[in-house]
Amino acid sequence: MKNKETGEFELLVGNGQIISGFFILALLLAVFFAMGYIVARAKYQQEPGAATTLAASPPSDSRGPAAAPAIPPATPPGAQQGDTAKPDGDAQPQPPTRPAQDVKPEKTEPPPEPVPAETPQGIYWQISATVNQDAARALLQTIKDMGLPVTLSPGPNNFTRVLVGPYSDTATLAHVKTQLENAGLHPVKHTQ
How many CA atoms, within 13 angstroms, populate the side-chain half-sphere of residue 189? Predict the structure, then answer.
């Protein structure tokens, strides 16, 4: 509507128009959120899938596919090479097996050493307490590489503590704390 005094137009917005605008805005935000969710989910699911397909496919021969040796089909136990067996409706197809010369034995690592039940009495710097013993052992090795005395100690609720020490004098304790903080660790004093 045109204002007769100033010559300007006034725009009147009612309650129904305000509510409609709000719902349109909320709908647009929901659409953008859903699109972002779908894209992120597809990207996340694509990454692990690519790793499994690479692991499942055998490495290609550098001479090309024509030069790769053929793998003979597996014969069931008790059957001779020339025998052919009728497929049963209940029997499931067996995947082809590789010849014995291609099979490589898996590397076996020695079992990790158990966490000692008790540690000597003294004042320690506790670096970590975790239920993941592999992470605790990795941190233990990192601190050993720094040249500090470090040990693992059992904690409550199946936690494993990573303790540096023991120390008896406060000067050495302060020096080690500074060294650990410079390495990016956050030590906490622990008395055993």
Answer: 9
